[in-house]
Amino acid sequence: MPIAYLRFGCALLLMVLTGAHALTPTPQPDSSTVGITECNLQTDEVPEPYPGATPTGYKGAWVKDPVWQRNVRHRAGPDGRSQYRLRWQRQWYASIEPIKLGANQYGYEVRDGGCLRLLNPAGQPYPLPPYLSSHIQLVSQKDTGWLYTLRSGSGGDQHDLYVRFQQGQLQAVSPHRYARQFTSSTLQAEHLVYPLTNVVVHASAPQGRDGHGVLNLMTLQEVLAPRWLGISELYLSSDDGQESPHYLLTDDGQQQMLFSGDGQRQVLSGFHSLRLLPQALPAVPHLPPSSNAAYLVTEMGGQTCRLYGLDLTPLLVQPHRLRNGSCLTAPDQTGGLGLAGETPDGILHFYTRQPDGTLRQTGQVNGSLAALTRTGNAVTRIDTPAGPRYRVYTFAAQPTHPQDFDDFRDLGCGFHEVRLGEQWLTLLPDGSTRTERYFPFSC
Predict the structure, then answer these.
(1) What is the pLDDT of residues 402-422, one digit of tens each?
(2) CA dist 146 to 14, 56, 102, 113, 424, Å?
(3) In terms of Cα–Cα distance, which of 119, 172, 176, 108 is closest to 146?
(4) CA nearest to 320, candidates 347, 293, 295
(5) How far are the Cα atoms of 68, 127, 148, 385 from residue 107, in angstroms, in the given order?
(6) Distance of alpha carbon 161 from alpha carbon 181, whole angstroms
(7) Do you find a cis peptide bond into 195, omega within 30 degrees of 0?
(8) 260-294 burial: b if 16+ Cβ within 10 Å, else e
(9) pTM (2 decimals)?
(10) pLDDT one-digit tens code per residue, 262-276
């Protein structure tokens, strides 16, 4: 069975990147990323220096860090606090901690004046702003690349700068620092899955209208700038590992818009809502389960809808009325390929899925859909000056009875009744009637 995904969240990213990427010249962060000149930490807030060992041994035993032991020297400073330097330099720091940069390369995170700075393997500073803490986000499959966030600020004003290293070199820097506290997205994320290619980022804004955007974790370029009230990623994944095209759904507070997965093209706009329905269409035996999925797009404030294939090919020629959360209704328990749907002009349309998965209209009649029998006959309601009348049609738009019925009741569990004059009749699934009345005991 296919699973519909609306991907995104702010959880810790556990993506496994695949493959190496060509190195690019060292990126330079823009002015918005270098505005911090000092960290303003109180003396009692400064963390203890890195001890040159980690509690990674048996039952938490401390294990010496070989890179630190080989390359760091320490002494007691004039104030009695320990000071540290790289063995080939004379600059002393409050702490030095080696950090992995991929391909067995190590940089050095040094604390100076309360702030942290990042040095390259040779001990030279990267063109990055000072920060308060660093956090590993992604590790490549072959340990050739590492992604970190460099956190600045405190309390409710914390921001993350994304930096990516490849084989020991600074590969990419995000164009901005992104807020860690933000208003909730108007588009809810469901079924968060890995690996993730993109992450939702946030920019603080006045009046509490924080902006949501999309950052590509490989390039650290913004796919969509953080100016939306909500963002979700839509795609379909099936058991065989195949995925449908990816799209980005956005909400600006006035309308929703759909973009291509790379954010370069706006592919749909002006609609009320959009949902991915994994089982929108009846199954065709020889086609994969993903062929049964469709995008349901509502319009006119949710009164009408359209259906699109996973490649956004329109499946219906014109808008249909929204009924029970879908444009089309399929008979229960039939396994058939028939569907029925109403258009706003009061016409009921019948469709059948073809062997290639497309929809073909097989007929149309006046009236609205009252019910579908389990074998695919449609009970239609026709409003007349004398009151509603009911007629039963096949999916070829052929009536199953020469006369109309005066009333109709859906008893549940696939049981229906029609009234002719004063007599109630059982409407059988094949469209015939019987004077003997049946009532469902249970479904």
Answers:
(1) 889 999 998 887 788 999 999
(2) 12, 20, 6, 26, 73
(3) 172
(4) 347
(5) 11, 13, 12, 84
(6) 14
(7) yes
(8) ebebeeeebeebbbbbbbbebbbebeeeebbbbbb
(9) 0.77
(10) 899 999 998 999 999
